[in-house]
């Protein structure tokens, strides 16, 4: 039964990627999407925002919270989940050739770019609700770029969104409730 469900999900994933490739790819996006995905490499866009917040003393705790969220979400996604699931990326199948993006060698599920982007975007949105749409659009574009570049399946991206948002919510609750006051104290005292 589980195998049949897995096969059906794989068919839907393959169809969506085929649809994107057939109807979405064009020269303009072939230039833009690698740039968008680069913004998500190692959470670079989110680290830049965090550093800017850390440098402004009233927002230091928020910047540190975002960095903590990026670290924990990376451990969960890249360090744990990818090695449990071990899903091969669509670009690493033998029938795919890409001329505009290097093929990643790590596993596919979940999308690390998406996971860290939505984790950071959600954490930032908690503190800066007026910019939530901006943060979510950036995270969404990074996630979409992973599909466009054929390095993730749609379910990898969906899992990245879910796990990323859950990570940020859990970290926020832990920090707010003071369950681990030593981490909270470290974040306050980092100068």
From TrEMBL:
<feature type="transmembrane region" description="Helical">
    <location>
        <begin position="61"/>
        <end position="80"/>
    </location>
</feature>
<keyword id="KW-1003">Cell membrane</keyword>
<keyword id="KW-1133">Transmembrane helix</keyword>
<dbReference type="Pfam" id="PF01569">
    <property type="entry name" value="PAP2"/>
</dbReference>
<feature type="domain" description="Phosphatidic acid phosphatase type 2/haloperoxidase">
    <location>
        <begin position="62"/>
        <end position="172"/>
    </location>
</feature>
<keyword id="KW-0812">Transmembrane</keyword>
<keyword id="KW-0472">Membrane</keyword>
<feature type="transmembrane region" description="Helical">
    <location>
        <begin position="31"/>
        <end position="55"/>
    </location>
</feature>
<keyword id="KW-0378">Hydrolase</keyword>
<protein>
    <submittedName>
        <fullName>Phosphatase PAP2 family protein</fullName>
    </submittedName>
</protein>
<feature type="transmembrane region" description="Helical">
    <location>
        <begin position="157"/>
        <end position="175"/>
    </location>
</feature>
<dbReference type="InterPro" id="IPR000326">
    <property type="entry name" value="PAP2/HPO"/>
</dbReference>
<feature type="transmembrane region" description="Helical">
    <location>
        <begin position="133"/>
        <end position="151"/>
    </location>
</feature>
<dbReference type="InterPro" id="IPR036938">
    <property type="entry name" value="PAP2/HPO_sf"/>
</dbReference>
């Amino acid at each position: 039964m589980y195998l049949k469900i897995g096969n059906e999900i794989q068919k839907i994933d393959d169809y969506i990627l085929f649809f994107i490739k057939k109807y979405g790819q064009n020269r303009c996006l072939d230039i833009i999407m690698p740039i968008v995905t680069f913004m998500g490499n190692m959470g670079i866009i989110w680290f830049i925002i965090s550093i800017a917040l850390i440098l402004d003393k009233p927002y230091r705790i928020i910047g540190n919270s975002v960095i903590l969220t990026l670290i924990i979400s990376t451990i969960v996604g890249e360090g744990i989940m990818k090695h449990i699931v071990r899903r091969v990326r669509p670009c690493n199948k033998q029938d795919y050739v890409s001329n505009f993006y290097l093929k990643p060698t790590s596993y596919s599920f979940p999308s690390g770019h998406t996971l860290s982007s939505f984790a950071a975007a959600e954490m930032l949105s908690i503190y800066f609700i007026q910019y939530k749409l901006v943060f979510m659009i950036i995270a969404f574009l990074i996630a979409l770029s992973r599909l466009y570049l054929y390095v993730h399946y749609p379910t990898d991206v969906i899992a990245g969104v879910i796990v990323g948002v859950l990570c940020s919510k859990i970290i926020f609750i832990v920090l707010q409730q003071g369950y681990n006051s030593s981490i909270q104290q470290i974040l306050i005292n980092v100068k």
